Amino acid sequence: MTSIAVAWTDGWRRTLRDPALFATVIVLWAFLALFILFPLAKLLARTFLDGGQITLGNLVAILRDGNHRQAFWNSLLLAALVGLCGTVLGFLYAFAAVRANLSRAWITILDVATLLPLLSPPFPTAIAMIFSFGPRGLITYHILGIKGFTAYGLHTTLFSETLTYFPIAYLTLKPILAAIDPNVEDMAFSLGSSRWRVFRTVTLPLTVPGLANAFLLLFAASLADFATPLILAGNSFPVLPTQAYLQITGLFDLKGGAVLSFILLVPAMVVYLLQRYWVSRGYYVTVTGKVGAQTTIKSVAPWARTPLLGVCLLVAVAILYFYALLFYASIVVALGANHAWTWHHYQVIFTEGVKAIRDTLVIAGAGMPLGGLYGILLGYLVAKKVFPGRQAMEIVSMINYALPGTIVGIAYLIAFNDPPLVLTGTALIIVACYVFRYSPTGIRTTVALLQQIDPSIEEASEGLGAGSRTTFRRITIPLILPAFFAGLGVVFIRSMTAISATIFLVSINWTLITVRILEDMTTLDLGSAAAFSVLVVIIVFVVIAGISGLLRRFRAAGAVEMTSILGG
């Protein structure tokens, strides 16, 4: 204990010798404490304190409610099914893209289909499901003539979430499969092994850590999804995020919402710890071909190539169909009832909805540079500087990212709704939520890039007479710029598309497009909801195209792809 205290004291003494480092560390810890630890502490206090006394009564009262218990098990069931189905589908996609010798055109089709759900709010597929399979759905009612078909429940929610989130598994697994040296498989083939045996004994074992991580990512994404179950599951299949939302907005019960959030926090933290475990086990370590020339990949037999491609193409067509249907619904009077062309829905969103558009762009525009700077600054400190509490700072910075948005939103609502710091109803609380929830992607990217930089580069610069500031400006900054742009992209995308956290933070003064879409869905104004969704996709696509161009420009400094950022 004494040695730890001595080391801690020595560490702070070294830090104090660098005033800039000391000031930066103190400021960052102040922000982390205010916007991550403080809201979480307030959430726990609201859950376990009653009249200043620690109690389990609040938790017991909620757990006694059969509906809440059922919602908890429903949440775990849905998340597990989405994780399983999405991981399998993502693996098939990645395997086809990497191991089936597809042309560049086919791979482009797969990539475009998977990018659409990632660049849009979480519920366009849910809206398209209602258009397709609802009471007057295009497929069920108009094409098949089925009356009374219900598009609500576990089956449609599972289908919608799987299509929405499986691209994460695809983008996670694709680089892992691509990094496996084909010569390893060739050696197995030369020893007489069949394709199935090579797949089972060579390829699959090398991807198991990636498969586990992909499953956990999809499990966490489904567990955090608020909008899709609210639209498609409803009362037939309640889940915990929607129950917490209704507890606060319907019953105005902050304590009940806090308790439900805490219940959701438990599996979320388990998933987060398991993810860190897999990463620590060498999730990104695969067999790479550093020796010898790579040969033609033979993993997929000719007879299996067609059905594998057929499955992938079917899913791609389904995604493209949903988004095409979404656009079609935005330019007709009422899909399923009146298919006359109209621009009325767009007139509505650019008149009645212009405030939501303006507010969203202002908040996204403010959060994007702040999130980028915060991510690159904290990532640089963690990767390149030595100071007491460095590892703790990295862990704390990831908490909001690991937690479902419902928990973060309710925690912020509880923390900043009362003095001494009242932020509810302001744009600041929404911007802070976005910055401290989604900047960890930029942090991780910065750390990864800096760890790949050979220290001898900076040492050579200083050895040639350049000072530390000059070396930082001319060497380090250009090398980590890709992480900065990646952080900008992620924060902007989530600022335009997220809803699970910010649904609790919007007000009459500041609202968001995603919230307006949800409101239009509840009032059955499906055409306007579709028009808003199309607008979001266009805005995000244009901005991300620009950021991707900047990423390609600085690719020499570090191979950062926007697609990989979205997947991770």
What does this structure look like?
There is one protein chain. It contains 26 helices and 4 strands. With 568 residues, it is mainly alpha-helical. The chain folds into 2 domains: 229 residues, MetI-like (MetI-like fold); 241 residues, MetI-like (MetI-like fold, Orthogonal Bundle). The chain has a two-stranded antiparallel sheet. It has a two-stranded antiparallel sheet with strand order 3-4. Helix 20 packs across helix 23. The longest helix is centred in the N-terminal third of the chain and has 34 residues. The two termini are 38 Å apart.
Short description:
The chain has 568 residues and is mainly α. The protein contains 26 helices and four strands. A hairpin with a 2-residue loop joins β1 and β2.
Q: How many individual domains? A: 2
* Poorly predicted regions: 283-296, 556-560
Name the shape in a single word: globular
CATH superfamily of the largest domain: MetI-like
Structural class: mainly alpha
Total DSSP E strands: 4
- Quote the CATH topology of the largest domain: MetI-like fold
CA-atom Rg in angstroms? 25 Å
The fraction of residues assigned to DSSP E strands is: under 5%
Query: Quick one: biggest sheet?
Result: 2 strands, antiparallel
Distance between the termini: 38 Å
Quaternary organization: single chain
- Average pLDDT number: 81
SSE sequence, one letter per element: HHEEHHHHHHHHHHHHEEHHHHHHHHHHHH
Instruction: Assign the CATH class of the largest domain.
Output: Mainly Alpha
Widest beta sheet: strand line-up? 1-2
Helix content: over 70%
